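Bench notes, afternoon.
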Amino acid sequence: MRKWSLKTALNKFGPLFGLLGLSGILAVLSPSFLQMDNLMNIARQSSINALLALGMLLPILTAGIDLSVGSILAVSIVVAGLVSVTWGMPPLIGLIVCLAVGAIAGLINGLLLTKLRLPHPFISTLGTMNVFRGLALILTGASPIFGFSYLMNYAGQESIGLIPISFILVLIVYVIFHIFLTRSSTGRYIYAIGGNKEAARLSGIPVDRVLIIVYTLSGFMAALGGLILIGRTNSASPIAGLTYELDAIAAVIIGGASFLGGVGTVWGTLIGVLIIAVLRNGLNLLGTTSDLQTIVIGAVIVLAVYVDVLRRKKGSK
């Protein structure tokens, strides 16, 4: 039988302990923190970042990164707006087009990385971040699109009982990705590539094909997050998603994934998302300014990366 030590428990459940500890402190400082309306507000507010962070987890597991997810979200929703609002096509077509644009944008990232042999996805996704943002601005003339149909707004606006549909969607997608990463050969290949890319290639793993899948899924998840944003704002703005990639990266790292690849879980990412959402919500309840919130979130990210460095050092001994 496997023996559990305090050190093992902290390594495995550290982010969860952090979330529970943070929630406990905020519950003491603010009586309204644990009210059901506030908890559901946290769930609703965290849904978009949860979807983007789940997509971001895959490149980070391969020791990569996707800086373009915020821009992919923007170009996906503005194309959906053009199709379903400006051109008056059925909303189902707009929804499908939105997801397809996100997947195609991610596919382009994967092809640029694998076919052009660029040294690191930081370069290719930094470039496409600007390209996709520019496309969104050109397509809309830098103006937002308003007036989406009920179907397009459904996931971002409706609830089942008190629980937002957007958060239920998040849980369903997280279960699917958990099964994908732990039960499929492609999921195991993703971890293997992050552990040692050349060793994975020499062992016969189709590295390029797996990386293309990884970045395509990252783009798809950005577009899915965009659909939630459409529902929340009933609009599609070409400047939507600015800095969203930073929140997604932060959630993945806070959730226990490593920038060096090969380490990270779906549920750890969800806890990272919730830590950021709870922290922002708690700071709002305590009346802190947005400037101070930015500093606190930044400090938490630095702390999470430092914990990852310490964990790597201990693991190498």
